[in-house]
UniProtKB/TrEMBL annotation, chain B:
Residues 16-248, 245-479 form the ABC transporter domain. The keyword Repeat applies. This is ATP-binding cassette domain-containing protein. Transmembrane segments: none annotated. SUPFAM superfamilies: P-loop containing nucleoside triphosphate hydrolases. GO terms for molecular function: ATP binding; ATP hydrolysis activity. Keywords: ATP-binding, Nucleotide-binding, Repeat, Sugar transport, Transport. Pfam families: ABC_tran. It comes from the Bacteria.
Amino acid sequence: MRLINPRLALPILSLAILIVAVFWLQPRAMSYVGINLLFNLAVPIALATVAQMIIIMVNDIDLSMGAFVSLVACITAAILPGNPALGVLMLLGCVLAYAALGALIEARQLPAIVVTLGMSFVWGGAAVLILPSPGGTSPVWLTAIMKAKPPLVPMAIIASLLIAGVAHLLIMRSAFGVRLRALGGNARAVSRAGRSTVRLRAMAYAVAGCFAVLAGMALVGLTTSGDANIALRYTLLSIAGVILGGGEFTGGRVSPIGAVIGALTLTLAGSFLSFLRLSPDWQIGAQGAILILVLAARLLVRQAEKRT
Amino acid sequence: MVSGDTEAGARAAPVVMLEGASKSFGALKAMDHVDLHVSPGESLGLVGHNGAGKSTLVNLITGLFAPSAGRVSYPGASDHRMAGIRAISQEGTLCPNLTVLENLQVVQRDLNGWGWRRVAARRIRTALDAVFPGHRIRPDMLVADMSLAESQMVEIAIGFAEGPIPARLVVLDEPTSSLDAQVSAQLLAHIRRFCAAGGAAIFISHMLGEVFAVADRIVVMRDGRIIADRPTSGFSRQGLVDAMGHVADDRNQPGPTAQARNLGDTVLRTPEGIEARRGEIVGLAGLAGHGQAEALARFYLSQGSDWRSTARPSAVFVAGDRRRDGVMPVWSIRRNLTLAALETLTRHGLIDRAAETAIGTDWQKRIGIRTPDMGNPILSLSGGNQQKVLFARALATSAPVVVMDDPMRGVDIGTKTEVYDMIRHEAAQGRTFLWYSTEMDEILNCDRVFVFRDGAISAELEGPRITEENILAASFEFGDAA
């Protein structure tokens, strides 16, 4: 057995380079509080990235991730604190809706990109209905979890490790995860083996929905309020995170650990640019440039691999 | 679970029974009133021309299709899965993104819960060791990282692997198409062992030698019907070919070496040392996977530019791996055919539809593509006809050099003969062919042969020196304990 997947080498390297660069620019970040500040906003992004990764793993793409996470955030901030039962029910409904979408996409052979693009408007509308103006509060227990200060290691790091570990076990090691990845690798083989592809795709979407719900809740736990537009950029961030983490758009080749590393890298890239005192006008462009740089490096590594 | 015992004389209950089974797809009758029993211990060879109904028969037996009329039953079991019927198909049913043992999990439903990886690894390793002793496949290898031959070996091993329902009938559809001779022999030996132990097998191959070696009963199909079903001893090689309705046997084709042709100047030279003259058919031989395909790809890619295309390419490529390098699966037959010649069909940036249709009709006639309408999707054709379209795609250009990457893999003799004629005709017109082939009779048809071993040319043979013995001698390394 290989100890480390060679596909993970580059994501780990890019994250390490960014961390070193940030610490070099801002040595004060090299502390418990500093690290927590750098990474705590990465937690919801990491969860959303894992959700997106599961969708990409079954050869689909989810353009409604940001809108869906925003809707979850609105439910969490507006309904969960006052009426926990209704709130939980609604969040459960969100997961079921995702499963239904997956079943629909497979049964009718619809392109996921169109279905999720359409659904992003539905999620967005529902979010505005639930929380017309920014506000609400975070349930006390949620804030307590997200802002906990465990000794030695900051919460953000523990949470990231936990997400990566759980996702890895579920997707890469369990029999269930193998079946879901098989759907992305060769759907015909799966149906020939007598398994229902509709059921499997619905399951994949349900699992993705669970991670996305956790992302929305984690986000509210950190910001302590909700907003219908709070997570719109998560759609593209999550896709970028999956690809940064060594995943492929087609063929079911993904890496949950890589996806979490990708999410951390993206978050850190933002902080790095702030430490550089780059004007906010240029930051998005610069973030894109970092992304292109990492992907170009990955391409070069792959080509070198092929030649040997 | 089956009541029948295997005492001599007492016939055990069949694993599968077809009674008057028919299957139609729209107006097309793919199978017409077929009666067939396969009993434990039997090894059945299934032969027939492309489109004879072999695949349909297999799909009925393996439960992929339901018959349109008649009955398919599995005595003692409720369905094909409970009956222990396993299929190893031609198209590859592995998931490339999974490891070997994970692929076993996709088909075997009892691999769940804690420790399933250990069980799966043991089952697949045992099966690989039994079928292909000396293989170098590890259960944790990713299928995407394996060669075509290795993934085919894995697929076969999964078919024979121990599972919740033991394998009682294994259907092998062209299982040796990308295996070399030594590995194929291992497989044939295993099928015989499996049947001797009470298993049943249906073996489909266009290599009649293999069918004779493995089958104790041969079923010949033509036009969706079984036209002969006798013990193997009741067939001769010639009789079998005649029964399939073919006029040509691969043995009595006139070698082009016999027909002296005027060859032109040397038109190409590659860094590996391959040379070809104008109008020459150059064969690349040797065991599969010894660098022939790579040499072809390097040559072909060096001929064109990544940046612009030209109406007069200097080389065209005929793919062997149709799915990967060849067909555009959602396009029509005509569009697939005219793809390489597109530049010549373009006027003011638009495609001349009339000219496109003309080329399509012309080549349909010249190469014999069996379809009522060239506007049908390419996947409606049988494999052999798809391959003809890829040939036509290459030949429809004006390119002086045609590069062929083992394009006749899994193609029936009839199609082959037609394409051989076409190649000879085109060579006589001054086209040069670079032909990588894993089949000896194709190599023997070449004017000059380069034999590859371990990524380099180990022999260059010309004229009367192109013999099976010489090629084999150059392919194998003697004194090497392989």
